[in-house]
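Reviewers asked in the last cycle whether our approach scales beyond single polypeptides. To address this, we selected a multi-component target totalling 866 residues and predicted its structure end to end. The input consisted of the following lines:
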Amino acid sequence: MSPALILQVAIGGILMGLLYAVVAAGLTLIFGLMNVVNFAHGALLMAAMYATWLIHRSTGLDPLLQLPLVAALLFGTGVAIYRVLIARTLQIRVNGAMVQIFTTFGLSIFLVGLAQLVFGSDFQSINASFLGGRTLAFGAVVLPLPLVASGVVSLLVFLALFRLSRTEFGRALEATREDFEAVALIGVDRDRIFGIGWGIGAAAVGIAGVLLANFYYISPDVGTNFALIAYVAVALGGFGSILGALIAGLVIGLTEALTALVVDPSLKQIGIFLIYLAVLMFRPRGLFGKL
Amino acid sequence: MVERAGRALLSRRRRELLLGAVVLALLAALPLGVSGAYLRGLIVLALLYAGLSQAWNILGGYCGQISLGHALYFGIGAYTSALLFTRAGLSPFIGMFAGGLLSGLSAFLVGIPCFRLSGHYYAIATIVIGMMAALLASNWDFINAAQGITIPFHGEAWRNLQFRTAVLPFHYVMLVYAALMWLIAWVIEGSRWGFYWRAVKDDVTAARSLGVSIYPSKLAAAAISGAATGIGGALYAQYVGFIDPESAFDLSLSVLIALPAVVGGIGTLWGPLLGAAVLIPVQQLSVAWFGSAAGGIDLMVYGALIMVLALSRPEGLVSFFHGRARQEAVDHG
Amino acid sequence: MAEPLLQIREISKSFGSVAANVDISFDVTEGEILGLIGPNGAGKSSLFNIIAGEIAPDRGEILFAGQRISGIGAVACARLGIGRTFQVVRSFDSMTVLENVLVGAFLRARRTRAALRRAEEVIAVCGLAGRSDTVAHRLSPPEKRRLEIARALATEPRLLLLDEVLTGLTPTEAREGMQLVRDLRAQGITIIMVEHVMEVLLPLIDRAVVLNLGRKLLEGVPAEIVRHPEVIRAYLGDRYSG
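The resulting structure, written as structure tokens, was:
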């Protein structure tokens, strides 16, 4: 195993990790805001990927240029999910947490079914994109360009998320999650804040979906694995922590790539799971979680 | 001397038991009125899931720990029994006992780290561990990895739990399973453990102040629930004759095990049966109607039904009957 | 003289940089009603939770019937005979009154029938007999307080910790509550009460320990307490000094 290969795999893992981190950030944002886990997160990723594929096929618009469009689309979807489903679960006094879990699970099943109906169960992929097939070489280290681009965009997403927390809206988010009854008294509309929170969370997944569609196959249940990784990332980074999601995403991407290289590609997730078990044992609320 | 309120509670329990016997008799007579292998197969599945979901309900409903990894215990029970049958020629009755034991033990072991978490944290931990098991199972050559195990036909006999002719014997096998699970839940409801688990579900701090040890309570619930689920897994393997990681360890199975209880009424005696009676036919029939022609509609129907029922009936379908049952309790008082 | 039922020895507890309790020591004699009083933030709740085993002290120890109980946890404390209520009520909301109390009764009675008898007894004592079949979340706030007392009583405690059980009641309800406390003492149960409404507490208790800013200000019989200048300044305020 040459050092260049190891370096190439490691960098590839980190870039993939950034993408995982964006998916996890969407999940952790919603959780941190209102203590709700979105079990339809993987389905949203899948939806974003199909949207990208569909727009590409019907208009020829390059996935990279679709970023704002799909992000906006998913933002709207997130707001709608909050308005139609989640806001209702907040009214429920008995078994509220359980209703949230199974409502989002039901939504996930529904969306996967919808994708099957509309697109069939076959794998799709975007073949002729601007970035597709190109590579970037640093000496002996060769990286696929779509992956590099996805890493760069992911970093930008995190930059935006960190900036967001310093804006007035970010402070309103913060205040709402501290105590939403008190915020209601000073005139902040809880439903509006929560709705936007869901919008931003879904938009993050939307961006990840576009980036992923550039180099990954698309199928109705493509989201399952990514959602699983996002749950692990959120647990590892600490529920509600954006910084935690970033670091956990990187750790997971790197672990996965190195396990695939050293052990066996079909077992690449075992490394991730072992990390998760270690977290469970020694730091149950994650690295940056509030204990 | 037990006074009025206590007598009301005891007589309510006796009435439940009586109702249970009536329902059992009706379900036993059901094949008389239902002909056709398809419909009978549907009922067999519904009964299996009523039992499985009641097993889940012990931990998820009574003790309030929403596990989304019960496929793990189902899979361990199914694989243990199938392996013992195919490789050692042991009767499934021994297999389901061994499988139940192993899955109960696994549930206990999984509980050790996971019960340090609560709420969503716990649910996610069970998902991850369940999927980890699925991944391991599909890479473990000893159990045929992703290919799965086909259970050979060893001759029509109760000892083998194999029947060439019809699903009728399995109707009674699954009915006995579902009835046993119901009975376990009934016993739990009236016992010290049952009250302790419900207390743990409602308020951990208050429970502790009354001398309820939280961690051991959860572990006990998990072990019983896991073992009961494993037995269902063993029955499933023998009924279907084939298992693989996809059918025995998948997350969607974990959800399917939990759903009847959730839809029917979590932490209730009749919820799992009621939920299975609604969900399993809807799911199976929509697969049959839409599955081939327009794949996907079956999942949409199923998903939409879950959303609508969860949102509109957070206390489950049993709440349709509650108003009357409570009123009755008052009238008798 | 007999050994005190409860001995609190130099208990200290901090939460972060906030010292909730500093070097607190006092004894509780078997059969007495002791009032634990002090303004908000005096450290009453923290001390209560330490005695009940819900939190462990940083320093010091607590002996109950001669046995060290600090740090052994709430479950073990309940088994040894310490019952408690909570300042913010914690009923098992999905369960009926009878079922709530049964949970407590199962601590001593393993069999359901025996537990039922015990539960019904204490429900009657606490004046909830007509509400046995009511689901707890439908109870009124004063009823919830009674339910908490009933639940704790069902565990057959030797020492009962009552946290603001008389707060927020109408005068009639408060009188009934006080009578209930007296009845319990008559059964031989030792009681520690936290209350910040002094008027209700003083006629009820044998002795009081006054806390202020995490420290013990003084202890004594009610008559001494109300005369003490520091108490008047720290706690009673102008209403009493005027």
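Chain A touches chain B through 51 residues (CB under 8 Å). We regard this as preliminary and will revisit it once experimental data from Aim 1 are available.
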